[in-house]
Amino acid sequence: MTKSIAIVGSGPAGLMAADLLLTLGYSVSLFERRGAIGRKLFIAGSSGLNITNSAGTQEFAQAYSGQPLSFWLSILADFTPSDWTSFIESHLDQETFLGTSGRYFIKAKTALKFVRNWRDRLVKLGCLFFLNHELSQMDLGSPSSDPSGHPRIQLKFKNKQTYDFDAVILAFGGGAWETEYPIKWPQLFSHFGLQVQEFKPSNVGWEIHLSPDFFKEAEGLPLKNIVFSSDKGAKKGDLVVTAYGLEGTPIYLLGASQICHLDLKPDLSHTEILSKLGRIKENLSPLRRVKKALNLSKAGESLLFHSLKENKNLSLEAMVDFIKKMPVELTRPRPLAESISSTGGLSFSDINDDFMVKSMPGVFATGEMLDWDAPTGGYLIQGSVSLARATAKGVQKYLAKSQDKGSP
Q: Taking the model in full, what pTM does it have?
């Protein structure tokens, strides 16, 4: 008899786990609490779906938190970035390309066809989809009720529907981009004595302390090719001015509630900038010389003007110092609902090496609902699908043992 598996959640982890298990010959039912699948893929793909990164093996694995480096090296070796892009091109009929930033994207401008093609593929493989099904309870049967010694798992949903399965994969996702807080799914584990770590925002914009006039002038404008630094380190890249502060990879990685710094001209040394300003023969103030000689962006000029406050007539030396190490006061991160990812979730200490919840036989957890994190740039989605593949193999191993025990 074909073993039946439930997957709860239709993000990249849930879809990938379903895909592998279907190709292995299992019966798979996928449950989603919303009326459509792949919501976070649509959110991620709103400005171009970044699927993975071209970083080398060691650098790639070092981008992840929550588990030792050896764990991530093993997970990524089992389903590599190359495996993922090949899967997308061969099975989802989506072209991928390598951007100048070292990130891989799908060629389509949105995630619509990506999600639709994956859904169609899963349907052809035999997947049953259950939309508008929000899980409300999990019941584990008695091992004595099954010849294999493994209990069937009963899932109850808020729409009063109930289903039984041989194994269940939970792929709820993390705390980012949710619409309801506090997040409800951690309550499902309280009956089993598990404490889910609190979700906190990660890869999120930060509010900064500057006058409202700055935001009126610069909102939506980019700060390109800058270096952002804090006590956590320094990162070169681009930022965007928002209505409240700054967003972008450097600040996602290194943002902290403190006085941080920007180098507005990292490709020019202090001496080179001073020389450019000194070559202007007109009798201009240091700020006017900067505007004429350094070709700062509109956002950069506005940030410089409003950050100087009453010190706009600095000496040339002091002005160059300020440009190379401009103080920016970060006050607080934006809320979890606006974050790209989150820290927190189900602890790895509560699952075994096959991703099965230790106190819940037959129940597995995967993807961003586990307590790990990574920067933007394709690492999050790669981590999710690689974890999902490993989890699906853990389910296969569990069910194979179950079948062996049940054999006469």
A: 0.90
